[in-house]
Amino acid sequence: MAKKKKISVSEVAYKNLLRKKTRTLLTILGIGLSAWVLTSLFGFNRGYEAALNKDIDNMGFQVLLTAKGCPYEAATLMLKGGTGLRYMKESVLDDILQHPEVEKVTPMVMAAVFDPNKGESGGMSAYLGVDPTTYPGMKSFLKFKQGGWFTEAEALEAVLGYEVAELEQREVGDKMLISEKNVELSVVGVLLRSGTQDDGTVFLPFRTVQRLFQKEGLVTAVGIKVKRNANITELENKLYDLPDVQVVSMAQVKETIMSLVSTARMMVFSIAIIAILIAMLGVVNTILMSVFERFQEIGILKSMGAMPWDVFRMIWTETVILCVLGGGLGISFSLALSRLTDFLIRRLLPYTPTGNLIHISGQLALLTLMVVMGIGLASGVYPAWRASRVRPLESIRSEGE
Known about the structure:
This protein has helices at about 10-20, 20-60, 75-80, 90-95, 135-140, 160-170, 205-210, 230-240, 250-295, 295-305, 310-335, 340-350, 360-390, 390-400; strands spanning about 65, 90, 100-115, 125-130, 145, 155-160, 175-180, 185-190, 200-205, 220, 220-225, 245-250. By secondary structure, it is of the alpha+beta class. Strands 1, 3, 4, 5, 6, 7, 8, 9, 11 and 12 form a ten-stranded mixed β-sheet that branches. The two termini are about 40 Å apart. Mean pLDDT is about 80; it is low at about 75-85.
């Protein structure tokens, strides 16, 4: 006599889901979209901070010293019409180097002049003077599309950020005119896009800016590279004792940026919660409808000896299958569309560092799957409980009616 094949609970659950293929597919897709948002959000939390830390490390200096009241961003300077510049005496470099925590310093001097040839009615042009012996080493992440840094410490030469070169349509060998000074500069280098404010900067030799704009013996800012394992907070407190200076810590900059991003992050997190709630409702709806459609069938199973736990487990297994398939689909979406997600986030946020903003690891994918499974199992409790409470006599009576 042939042995009867025993059908497992998972097989029954799988076949039940195939009865309504369209509804099952839409539910899996809904769970998948929720898992995609969730995975991308977790990946963004990790990737953004890692990319920001890398950008700060690439800056070469952890502390920026400026004259009190002086904007340390070129964008702020332009908004003020070039009137916000303040200067310190160059002797401040010796005062800074006296501190044992300091490894290197690089002086910078900025000047802004009105350029009548800029735009339709003219505009401000800013020039940043940097020391060619120290600045390139501390900004090692800056790479060249063409050319290189200045040939001499007081040369009439310029290095253009990527966006400036594109806007001005300049290449290595071209000439630039500082109209107010009637001085012609030779373009010796064009930088690759860095994703920082350096893209919009015109770099000149430090001494050249001092000489052309009558700023001898003055500096706008000093970049300070701190020795490894040195106490940055202690150094900052010492620098505050210097007269008429303000200390801009890269740690403070990071906190400021992260506070700006936290608003957008909360918005994304809210979207993720909404997506999860929609997925939960989709699971509940699919499983509950399945229970109602199989009301008589469940009653027959119970009349044949199936215990409430057996029915509960069968319905709950359907939920598990939906969540596993949906979670796997969502994780696949997040991996395949990580570049698109990265692009959308860059369009949304006010500031984004260079590097990948979405970092998805195997551990993160597993965590997302576990979260989706947990939410799905919670969603399946009520439909499974309803199914386990079906009474055989009531189901048979409803079939007769």
